[in-house]
Amino acid sequence: MSLIHNERTKLSATALNGVAIASIVAGFITPLAAASFGVQNTVNLSVPAILAAALGWLGAGLVLHFTARRLLGRLTE
Predict the structure, then answer these.
(1) Range among 38-42, 46-50, 57-61 rated most confident
(2) Which of 10, 46, 61, 65 has its CB 3.0 to 4.6 Å from that of 23, i.e. a possible disulfide?
(3) Angle CA(31)–CA(37)–CA(39) in degrees, nearest 5?
(4) What mean pLDDT do residues 33-46 have?
């Protein structure tokens, strides 16, 4: 039973970490890369609004990542 529990826990943590990575890439890295290459914003938002949204996505990704790490702490021997 312990091996099954551990594998399910690892699978859940991996899936959660994947969502965390996707959130950081889509919401934080992509807007910063677009700004650095001078891509015009299709939505007329101010720079502070874009920065706030990017930081929000970064925060969400970090929360998801650390939740996955905490989930791995539940592994049994």
Answers:
(1) 57-61
(2) 61
(3) 65
(4) 78
